[in-house]
Design the sequence.
């Protein structure tokens, strides 16, 4: 798809989605329009990120994509938290489910598709094994940090659970910020991929950054329109809030990471793909989820960080296989198949709950 056609489809689908929302059309129509619009916006975001990565290097480019891609997830969750604080506390369960879905979706689906499609084109793809080792340790930290509150919550009252949640959230945020300092300042030479991309960027540095910001703003609008349709869609099609949160919201909210990671893998930039997929999961677990705990606290209706057994098992399974596959810094298409297979198994299990 050339740039002109991409921009036409981008603007057209965004405008149509806005019209269906503000005209108060049928929720199913709004839902479909928003889903189509966010896919084109995600493609636009992925293209902008690829151009930024050309100037900044794969590590910074992957981090920017994970951050801007997670903006949609953060915005959707904040909207749900606001509604939960206004007398609909069960929406906290959907927020936690969407966090779970984002973590496993990036580790299994996004990384799996990148390894599969990139591996079909290139027999073996390699990335920095030192970064893979650190990522594995951080993923294991996220599992431990989520398991502990869930295990201790049964012996604590609501006030103590809230205090534990806020404490764990604060520790995770500090750990994530220190990881950024470690990986981008003190030890960046160890964990950074080779800088620069082959070929020429389509846009200038300034234009790439402007487009990156513009795409994020568009994602924010479409995400807000989408959230308003979820409750009715859930009831109409008989889908549980857990499935809606863990798979529907997560897949749509992370569409940017899907498109960008796959595009980069197809260009043999698997290092950036891994940074987007794993980096996004880590950012959700170590930063976005804890930030949401504090946001809910300041809104007056604190959300704890206690996840259900099903959610914890799904995260743990995703981490185990992602660590096993990515630790050596070398990938093939069959490893992508394994990741996608685990994702499908979890999806069927969540659908049947």
Sequence:
């Amino acid at each position: 798809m050339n740039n002109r056609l991409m921009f036409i489809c981008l603007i057209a689908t965004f405008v149509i989605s806005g019209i269906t929302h503000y005209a108060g059309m049928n929720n199913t129509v709004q839902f479909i329009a928003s889903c189509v619009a966010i896919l084109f916006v995600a493609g636009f975001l992925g293209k902008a990120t690829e151009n930024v990565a050309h100037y900044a290097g794969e590590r910074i480019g992957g981090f920017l994509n994970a951050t801007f891609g997670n903006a949609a997830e953060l915005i959707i969750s904040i909207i749900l938290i606001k509604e939960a604080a206004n007398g609909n506390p069960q929406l906290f369960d959907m927020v936690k489910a969407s966090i779970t879905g984002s973590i496993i979706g990036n580790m299994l689906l996004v990384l799996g598709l990148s390894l599969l499609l990139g591996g079909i084109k290139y027999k073996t793809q390699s990335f920095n094994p030192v970064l893979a080792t650190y990522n594995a340790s951080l993923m294991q930290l996220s599992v431990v940090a989520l398991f502990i509150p869930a295990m201790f919550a049964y012996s604590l009252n609501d006030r103590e659970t809230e205090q534990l949640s806020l404490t764990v959230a604060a520790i995770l945020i500090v750990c994530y910020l220190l990881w950024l300092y470690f990986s981008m300042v003190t030890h960046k030479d160890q964990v950074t991929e080779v800088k620069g991309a082959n070929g020429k960027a389509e846009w200038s540095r300034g234009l790439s950054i402007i487009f990156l910001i513009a795409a994020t703003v568009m994602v924010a609008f479409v995400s807000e329109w989408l959230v308003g349709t979820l409750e009715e869609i859930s009831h109409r099609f008989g889908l549980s809030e857990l499935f809606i949160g863990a798979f529907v919201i997560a897949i749509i909210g992370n569409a940017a990471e899907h498109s960008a990671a796959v595009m980069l893998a197809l260009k043999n930039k698997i290092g950036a793909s891994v940074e987007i997929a794993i980096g996004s999961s880590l950012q959700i677990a170590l930063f976005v989820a804890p930030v949401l705990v504090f946001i809910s606290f300041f809104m007056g209706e604190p959300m704890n960080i206690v996840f259900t057994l099903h959610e914890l098992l799904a995260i743990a399974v995703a981490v185990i296989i992602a660590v096993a596959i990515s630790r050596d810094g070398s990938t093939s298409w069959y490893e992508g198949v394994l990741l996608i297979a685990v994702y499908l198994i979890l999806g069927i299990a969540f659908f049947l709950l």
